[in-house]
Amino acid sequence: MIVLGVDIGGSGIKGALVDTEKGELVSERIRIETPQPATPEAVAKTLKDLVSRFDYNGPVGCGFPATVHHGTAFTAANIDKTWINTPAEKLFTETTGLDCYVLNDADAAGIAEVEFGAGRNVPGVVMMITIGTGLGSAIFVDGKLFPNTELGHLILNDDIAEHYCSDSARQRHELSWKKWGKRFNKYLHRLEFLFNPDLIILGGGASKSFEKFSEKIDVRTRVVTAETLNTAGIIGAALHAGRCADNGIKPNMEPQVCAEPEEKA
Ligand code: BGC
Known about the structure:
265 residues, Nucleotidyltransferase, domain 5, binds beta-D-glucopyranose
């Protein structure tokens, strides 16, 4: 099956057609700058522009840098705050006219790696950590995703982990790869202590420089870099959308709401 996968990020919105049986791109990868401010309406319009560049009218998978619960975005750590509580699947589906399935960006990257990359056929607990503007996380148990884990927001050194050791933190604090590697190693130790993974896969921009900081990593867990590189988010989003469509699942058009606290008697 050929499915359009899209990776929505803070600086670029990238898409390509994906062969979901092979986990490979079968078109060129098109990137459009993320509009600023990246409000829901502006991003939806850019997504529509991107989709129209492909001769395509099937389901669309969209990786998005936030918690996405039943199609609604609930957080906005590194994107415009107006995304909080936005029914993203409904908005994208209505704007593009195609069925859009939205999931967390790190979950999408993890799906690609577990299906076709470094996590393929690995039993037990596999963690994917994407290192970019933020820190994204995905956890799989025997290949099955536990979605929206948000482990970039653990507290480390009295700080939010992604403020302490994301790639943007490395740049902001002008840290050498070795200094930053020491920080990131602390983060991996915390993950190891809490989750005892069998494999940790690193993705996102900084993972390409793994050899520059790998000597600082001394967790007992095996740590490897993603094999699908910067296409992981696109491939995983396409796989997710393809599966939903195959199973007759429609995009969620009902905005999710937080339950009201029960009144005390
Ligand atoms: C967000 C996550 C996202 C990660 C990577 C974090 O700031 O909270 O939802 O997966 O950045 O984009």
